[in-house]
Amino acid sequence: MLILRLVLILVTLLLVLSGGMYIFTRNRRYLEFAWKTVRFTALLLLVFVLLFVLERYVLVAWRVFL
């Protein structure tokens, strides 16, 4: 959980900096970079949630049947 919090803090900082750079330079590549970062973070969180559900419910239920 500590690593997940650290990743979320770093991603938030990265998004704020990308937004600030876009405001100052009006270069759209900063917005594209921010969008790619959001998509990657969403994918990473989805994988984390799926692994958490797998560990929490599927593996525990498997142990009950054995």
Helical residue percent? Answer: over 70%
Unreliable sequence segments = none
Number of strands: 0
Overall number of structural domains: 1
Mean pLDDT: 91
Treating each run of at least 4 consecutive H or I residues as one helix, how many helices? 2
Q: How would you sum up the major sheet? A: none
β-sheet strand percentage: under 5%
Shape: elongated
Q: Give the helix/strand class.
A: mainly alpha
Query: What letter string, H or E per element, gives the SSE order?
Result: HH
- Report, as a whole number of angstroms, the end-to-end distance: 29 Å
Radius of gyration over C-alpha positions, nearest whole angstrom: 18 Å
Provide keyphrases for this structure:
66 residues, mainly alpha, 2 helices, 94% helix
Structural commentary:
The chain is mostly helical and 66 residues long. It has one domain. It is built from 2 helices and no strands. The mean pLDDT is 91.
Care to give the gist of this entry?
The chain is an all-alpha fold and 66 residues long. The protein contains two helices and no strands.
List the helices and strands and how they pair.
Layout: H1 2-25, H2 28-65
Helix pairs in contact: 1-2
